[in-house]
Amino acid sequence: MVSSKVQEDFTYIKKVLRENPQGMTVTDMAKVLGRTKNTVGRYMDILYASGQVEIRCCGTAKIFSLAQRVPFATILKHTRDLMIVLDKDLRILDINEPFLSLLNKSREEVVGSNIEYLSLADLSVQELVGKLATAIREKKIPEDLYVSNETEHFFKARILETLFEDDSHGFTVILIDLTEHKRMDEQLQASEKRFRDLVNLLPQPVFEANSSGILLFANQQAYLTFGYTSEELIDQINVWSMIAPEDRERARRNIAQMLQDGQPTKEEFIALRKDGTRFPIVDHAAPIYHGGQIVGFRGIVIDLTHRKEAEEELRRERDFIDATLHVIDALVLVLDREGRIVRFNHACEVLTGYTEGEVRGQPFWDIFLIPEEADEVKKVFAALVADVTTPLQHGNYWVTKNGERKFIQWSNTILRDEEGKVTYVIGTGIDHTGYRNLEQKLLDTRNVQ
What we know:
single chain, alpha+beta, Arc Repressor Mutant, subunit A, Beta-Lactamase, 4 domains, five-stranded antiparallel β-sheet
C-alpha cells in the first residue's frame, strides 16, 4: 500500500518535471523535494518502470523528464498483442479486443471482475488465466503459455507494474502471440534435423567453418576420418591444423580467393589426422552467404587413399607390362576396334624401324601391309572385332621403314569389356621371313626339276 505522503511526492515530482521540460537529475529533484537522493532515486525508478518518466544520459548523470506517451487507450485499441489492465486486487480495469477474443467474452462480462474468478468455457484458457494470476501474486516471470482450443496458440507474457494517474497501483499484462514464430521455429528445427540426418548418412566428411577457418559443424564421418570426438572437433579447431604443413599456405590462399570472388574450389591436399598420420584428400569447398555477405565456407572432403593406392597398383602393373612387352623377342601389337595402333613393343620397333611414337594412333594397314594383302587382312581383323569364328592365326607380309618385306606369323586374341563387346585385338607375331624364303627356294627348285 502506497502512503498518501508518497502519492503526494509522486504528484509533486511530475509537476516539477512538467515545469522543467529540459529534465532534472536526482540531485536536483532531492533539493526541490527536501528528500534524500536515495529516496528520490527509488521514486524515479518507480515512475520510470511505470512509463511515466524518461531517462537520458549526460556523461555519468541521468536526466529525468516526463514521458511523452501515447494515450494508453489508443495502444489498447490498435495493438495486435493481447492486453489487459488490472488493479492491485486483480480486478479487470480495461481489456482489448484480442484478449476478449481469447476469453470468448464481451467487455461487459469481464470489466470489474476479478481475473481469478472468471468462468471460462475453454479449460486451456482458464489454465492460462490462472497461471497469469499466480505469476502476479508471486511476482514471478511467467513461463511461455499454451492454449489448445480450436487451434494451438503459444504466448509469451509480460507483466508490468503500473502506476495510474490517480497514483494507485496495478498491473498491465501483455500476451505476445508466438504461434507463428513457434511454428516457423519448429519447421526450421525439423529442416535442420533432416539436413543433419542426411549429412550424417554421407560416407564423406562434411564441414562448415567461419571466414577464419574455425569449424562450426562437422558430420559423423568427419569424426571417424580425422580421429576426433564431436566435442574436440567443434571446439575452436581450425581447419588449417588438419592440413599437412607443406600444403597449409596453398590451402589458405585458395580459401582466401574463394571468400573474395565467391567461386567454389576443388583442390588436392595432404591431410592430418589427430594422431598425426597423413592421407591424401580432395576438398570441394563453397562460400556461405548471410545477408548477401560471405561469412564462411562449407565443404566435402573425399579421402583419396584407396584411389591413390589403386593408381599406384595400376602404375606398377603398367610398368611391369611395359617392361615385359619390351624385353620379349616376340612382336606384340595392340589394336583398337578401328585397327589403330595402341601398343607397339620394342621387338616391333627393331623389326620395322619405326618407334612406337611414330605409329601410335594410326591404322596398321596404312603403314605396314603390302597392297595385295591389305583387303584380306582387313577381313580377318573385322571378323575378330565382330567376334565371328575365324582362325586366330594368320600370316602376312609387313613392309619396314627401309622398304624390306618381312613375313610375320600372327597369333591373335581379343579383349572384351564388361558387356562382352570386343575392345582390343592383341597380335603376337614371329618373324618367319627366313623360313618363308627357304620354302620359296625349295618350291622354285621343285618346279625347275
